Structures are given as structure tokens and as C-alpha cells.
């Protein structure tokens, strides 16, 4: 079947889903290492939040944090979708969980990204 050779499968979108999940996983490697290094050094130097706020005041750091959050929650959404599609077979629970996972992942990403943007643009430093 030509569709299977092209990587489309029965749903005609399997390869792009698989590729996007691998791409987000690859993007999370350097972004996660950056995040862990910066958060550990900031938290080990002082036990308060101001070093993190100062870190996210930098445009490069804010962009990296937003990219990490976007890749993380997109990767989570794709992974949850795969698990739900593979293991939930009844239509009502399946589509309820799929819709819920989309809202959960995109909502959590939005909260995280807005938090980073607030720290960046408003320069919110604890006193």
C-alpha cells in the first residue's frame, strides 16, 4: 500500500505525529540541561526566588524557558494522545480523555509561559 510506504498509515498522519514527538524530545535535551543547570546554581547560591527572577529577566533566558515549556507540553500532549489511542477503546472515554489531555497540556503550558513572561516583562523581583 502506497500510504504505508509514505508513512501515512490508516490515519494518514502517523508519521508526522511520530516525527514531531521525536523532534520535541530532541529539543528538550539542551533546554532541560540549561534549565537544570541555571535553576540549581540559582537555588544553591540563595534560598530565595530573586535569582530565578533575575535569570528570567534576560531575553535569552526567557526565550529558552518559553521554548522548553512549549516543547515539554507539546511532547506530553503527543505522548498522552498515543497512550490514550492505544489503550482506551470505547469512544466516549477515549474522546473525553483526548480532549481533557489537550486542555490540560495547553493550559499548563499557557500558565507556565505567562509566568515566564510576567517575570521577564514586569521585572517582578521579591523584596
Structure notes:
This protein has 127 residues and is mainly alpha-helical. Helices cover 82% and strands 0% of the residues. The protein contains five helices and no strands. It has helices spanning 2-5, 14-45, 50-57, 59-87, 91-121. α2 crosses α4 (59-87) and α4 packs antiparallel against α5 (91-121). It starts with a helix and ends in a 6-residue tail after the last helix. The relative contact order is 0.12.
The count of DSSP E runs of length 2 or more, i.e. the number of strands, is: 0
Radius of gyration equals 19 Å
User: What's the overall average pLDDT, rounded?
Assistant: 85
Proportion of residues in extended strands: under 5%
Class from helix and strand fractions: mainly alpha
Unreliable stretches (pLDDT < 50, length at least 5) are none
Oligomer: single chain
**Could you give the distance between the termini?**
65 Å
Major beta sheet, specifics? Answer: none
Write the layout of secondary structure elements.
Layout (H helix, E strand, L loop, with lengths): L1 H4 L8 H32 L4 H8 L1 H29 L3 H31 L6
Helix pairs in contact: 2-4, 3-5, 4-5
Quick tags:
5 helices; 0% strand; mainly alpha; 127 residues
Summarize the structure.
By secondary structure, the chain is mostly helical. It has helices at residues 2-5, 14-45, 50-57, 59-87, 91-121.
Amino acid at each position: 500500500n502506497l500510504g504505508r510506504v509514505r508513512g501515512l498509515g490508516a490515519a494518514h498522519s502517523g508519521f508526522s505525529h511520530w516525527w514531531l514527538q521525536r523532534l520535541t524530545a530532541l529539543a528538550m535535551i539542551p533546554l532541560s540541561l540549561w534549565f537544570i543547570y541555571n535553576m540549581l546554581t540559582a537555588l544553591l547560591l540563595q534560598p530565595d526566588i530573586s535569582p530565578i527572577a533575575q535569570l528570567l529577566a534576560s531575553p535569552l533566558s526567557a526565550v529558552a524557558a518559553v521554548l522548553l515549556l512549549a516543547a515539554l507540553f507539546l511532547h506530553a500532549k503527543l505522548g498522552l494522545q498515543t497512550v490514550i489511542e492505544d489503550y482506551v477503546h470505547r469512544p466516549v472515554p477515549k474522546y473525553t480523555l483526548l480532549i481533557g489531555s489537550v486542555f490540560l497540556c495547553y493550559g499548563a503550558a499557557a500558565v507556565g509561559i505567562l509566568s515566564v513572561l510576567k517575570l521577564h516583562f514586569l521585572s517582578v523581583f521579591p523584596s
